[in-house]
Amino acid sequence: MDAHHPLSPPVPPATPARGALRRRLLARGCVLALLAAVPALQAQADDARPWLDTTRSFEDRAAALVAQMTLEEKAAQMQNDSPAIERLGLPAYDWWNEALHGVARAGGATVFPQAIGMAASFDIPLMDQVSAAISDEARAKHHRFLAEGKHGRYQGLTFWSPNINIFRDPRWGRGQETYGEDPYLTSRMGISFVRGLQGMDPVTGAPLDPKYRKLDATAKHFAVHSGPEADRHTFDVHPSRQDLYDTYLPAFEALVKEGGVYAVMGAYNRVYGESASASQFLLLDTLRRDWGFKGYVMSDCWAIVDIWKNHRIVQTPEQAAALAVKKGTELNCGSTYAKHLPLAVQQGLITEAELDDALGRLFAARMRLGMFDPTAQVKWAQIPYSVNQSAEHDALARKMAQASIVLLKNDGVLPLSRGTGKIAVVGPTADDTMALLGNYYGTPADPVTILRGIREAAPQAEVVYARGADLVEGRSDPAATPLVEAQYLRPSPVAGAETNTTERGLRGEYFRNTDLSGTPTLVRVDPVIGFSWDRGSPTDNLLARGEAGPDEAVPADNFSIRWSGQLLPPVSGTYTLEAAANDGVRVYLDGKRVIDHWRKADRLEAHAATVQLEAGRAYDIRLEYQELERDAGVRLAWRMPGAKPPFEEAVAAARDADVVVFVGGLTGDVEGEEMTVNYPGFAGGDRTDTRLPATQQKLLEAVHATGKPVVLVLTTGSALAVDWAEQNLPGIVVAWYPGQRGGNAVADVLFGDANPAGRLPVTFYKGDEKLPAFDDYAMAGRTYRYFGGEPLYPFGHGLSYTTFDYSGLRLDRTRASAGQPVKATVTVRNSGKRAGDEVVQLYARAPQGDGRPLKELRGFQRVHLQPGEARDVVFTLDPGKDLRHYDEQAQAYAVVPGEYELQVGASSADIRARTRLAVEQD
To answer: Which Gene3D superfamilies does the annotation name (predicted)?
Structure first.
């Protein structure tokens, strides 16, 4: 037996002494020691525990394991945090893991650009590389966790990504998680992401290992789900069948049929009156019967509760649990199944055999991941931990960030010259780590903000920075106030130890409780108090780039820290002392409590006190911090006497500069998933106004009024209506949430080291555009496919530092029917003076009528060309697949005979060549 077998060996009826030894070893998570203690027992594995017999099929093994469980054990195994069953040698497992744009919430991991940014790359081969890198890190981290005896959330192999909902409305806060508004682009990006996660060949789609999957990817949220966030637990969507089949379902169908995705997550909402997590139509009729899905379905978290509590489809939790399982949802994120399925069986609502069938699929899935087999037999278990945050992955994150950046406008101001004397970098997201990350992120080892990237790219230039404004009105941004630097802090001495008078910072005492009681589990000196821990592991730190302690010195939640020492003001005067925390914080100065906010917070909240300090005097300072649950963070900052107000400081910096780089937009702090904090223009994580926040617009106009050239860099996960900037500024760049090396990538584009070629995966509407009601799921008037107005920037738009010419569009046949592939060829030439990428886009325009789209993306290729180089770009269309539309009367897909216009160009609005294809009846 392999010494690294993930399960304990079979143990037949044994002596009490042997049983006690086994229980002690399991309690310590010490499977290796157990194996060493009882090696002879392996010989009985096949007979005593047939689910460990690797010669049997995964389905047979799963059935054998399920047959040994009690009803209560079965129900508990159908929830995401499945408990251990000691008597069967079954360890605990949590199905909940995240990998939207890098392994998330599991401590240190490479953070790639947010999903919407990767979609903007229009680069499938690059996405293949990124998703393979993510899965390498996920596998390596999982086996490191196992080696440490850890089986918790965010430590497994089943990942709840990608999000392939259609970003139908720019107000949706979670649109950043998607691949944009177009079903075809979403399908191609999603398939690529699934291939990389599950260990499949990027060209053929065949498994790279015929027996074991690398990871499980999950297509979510099925289906018709894109806000409003505040209503997601209650609303019932009734789209037209044409919108359903032409817009909302194609990406899911593609990931099932072409991508081989092995898991699907149901949405919270109802569709045609049925819960998406208990839908005969979606899960049984469409997913399994029509598409042939062979994997497993899970509910979104606590969505089973919604079935009875919010949707009121049934009256009791037992009825909700039974209905969900009977309609095809095998796995419950939450606790409804574990608590109520046994009662549902007793009440006759569902049979135990039905639970066996569902649970068998879940265990077969785990077995296909190699969880029950010797690791020496599992190819993916051999990936070394060194891949995690490796230099190669760091470089790949920078490359993807470069590829994702969209140049919206350039009147010759870009690229900037490194010889520029003084560059003023202003704006609220220029030096904000959160502007790199979006949501569902891991902890990068060394995140590079845009300010830092510019400074590193132009060391000979004088780069001055002024934040200038808060992100949004009514939000006091903690990052707006400078941290108290180490040179102004001296740690308190440790009793009985020799004082180190040269040491700087504050002494931190870390406690495994929330009330600073008992003996600290870790004591150390922290140079600055500036921490932001992801909720998967507080031992990883974004801002200070250190560790809260080795070996989980503090837990993920429910801990507290006390920092103490002396504050050494450099000048006399009035200081603003600020402590920001998520959750509780208290600050004492010379024994007097000056800041007191000892309670839960939904985000990093800043609390300030005005104090008079004298230079040359040392003030005793104590900061106490309490973390309760979810995200954690704490900062100690101050504003010194004589500092200009932020707005005036930014305008003065711009006036004194040769060029201004304004970095603003949004962060995941204001747009995201079901938030409880609202600001002007934002509600529950969604947006009520698509324009640049008023605080930033005011500053941008003031900076522009100085007469200096201004380049606007936008951090965002969605479309921004920057009409004023389009009319008044010479350069506009969209950086999205660009990941850990985003600052370097933006600087690469600004200074011309990278030639931008990203394209918009969403339409940018004008600020005064009257959009359809947010809660209306009809596609009329939405996205480039159905929007008849003039956008600010169209879908597919993006500029370059070079130019490209198109010529010679031709078809290998001008008449075709379903099943007869058509090749469309166009010649693209780099007519400029720089090497660059062009994203060549193919659109089809059907004979109009019956609510068909105005046009649809049906192919794209990102090609690199040297100056003067030309290349033939070839697209292949299958009319039966690529020109189909749903016929509501026939209740089926159909290809309408007639003349279709094929368009090739640089965006949905910048069409360079057209031709026609006659489609004939089969």
So the answer is: Glycoside hydrolase family 3 C-terminal domain, Glycoside hydrolase, family 3, N-terminal domain, Immunoglobulins
CB atoms within 10 A of CB 496: 5
Answer yes or no: are the C-beta atoms of 795 and 181 closer than 8 Å: yes
Q: Which of 474, 825, 437, 888 is nearest to 666 (CA)?
A: 437
Report pLDDT digits (tens) over 601-651.
877 889 999 999 999 999 999 999 999 987 788 999 999 998 888 999 999
The number of folded domains in the chain is 5
Q: Which two tokens stand for residue 297?
A: 């379905």
Range of the domain at 877: 804-919
Pair 392, 741: CB distance under 8 Å: no
CA angle 216, 217, 221 (to 5 degrees): 135
Q: Is 220 helix (H, G, I), strand (E, B) or coil?
A: strand
Do residues 821 and 876 lie in contact, with contact meaning Cβ atoms separated by under 8 Å? yes
Nearest of 171, 102, 188 to residue 138 by alpha carbon: 102
Domain stops at, among 755, 786, 817: 786
Q: How many beta carbons lie within 10 A of that of residue 809, not counting itself?
A: 18
* H helix intervals, 199-348: 241-243, 250-257, 303-309, 317-326, 336-346
Residues 89 and 32 in one domain: no
The stretches of 706-770 forming alpha helices (DSSP H) are 723-728, 742-750
Identity at 340, one-letter amino acid code: H
| Separation of alpha carbons 865 and 329, rounded Å | 49
CATH number at residue 902: 2.60.40.10
How buried is 669 (Cβ within 10 angstroms: 0-12 exposed, 13-18 middle, 19+ buried)?
Answer: buried
Provide the token pair at 688: 């009520």
Q: Residue 31 pLDDT > 70, yes or no? A: no
- 104: number of CA atoms within 13 Å, CB side? 21
Whether residue 551 lies inside any domain: the answer is no
Query: In the numeric block, which tokens belong to residue 376?
Result: 């020496």
261 and 168 inside one domain: yes
The label of the residue with tokens 């080696």 reads 147
State which of 353, 369, 387 marks the end of a domain. 387
Over the stretch 368-417, which tens digit does the pLDDT of each residue have?
Answer: 999 999 999 999 999 999 999 999 999 999 999 999 999 999 999 999 99
Measured in whole angstroms, how far is the alpha carbon of residue 720 from the centre of its chain? 20
Q: What is the mean pLDDT of the chain?
A: 91
Report the C-alpha gap between 658 and 848 in whole angstroms: 52
Do 139 and 239 reside in the same domain of the chain?
yes
Domain membership of residue 52 (yes or no) is no
- Burial environment of residue 206 by CB neighbours within 10 A (0 to 12, 13 to 18, 19 or more): exposed
CATH of the domain at 428: 3.40.50.1700
Sheet holding 236-237, edge to edge: 236-237, 270-271, 274-275
The model's confidence at residue 250, banded by pLDDT at 50, 70 and 90, is very high
If asked whether residues 375 and 401 sit together in one domain, one would say no
Residue 735 placed within a domain = yes
Q: For the packed helices 646-655 and 694-704, what is the interaxial angle rounded to 10 degrees?
A: 30
Give the CATH number for residue 611.
2.60.120.380
Beta-carbon contacts of 773 under 8 Å, excluding residues fewer than 6 positions away, are none
| Three-class DSSP category at 652 | helix
Closest C-alpha among 541, 525, 628 to residue 585:
628
Which pTM value belongs to this model? 0.91
CA 42 – CA 23 distance, rounded (Å):
18
Instruction: Please check whether residues 373 and 439 belong to one and the same domain.
Output: no
Same domain, 774 and 701: yes
d(C-alpha 405, C-alpha 382), whole Å: 35
Residues 346 and 433 in one domain: no
pLDDT digit string, tens, across residues 160-191: 999 999 999 999 999 999 999 999 999 999 99
| 473 and 497 together in one domain | no
- The residues assigned a catalytic role are 300, 671
From CA 476, how far away is CA 603, in angstroms rounded?
12
Q: Is residue 624 part of a domain?
A: yes
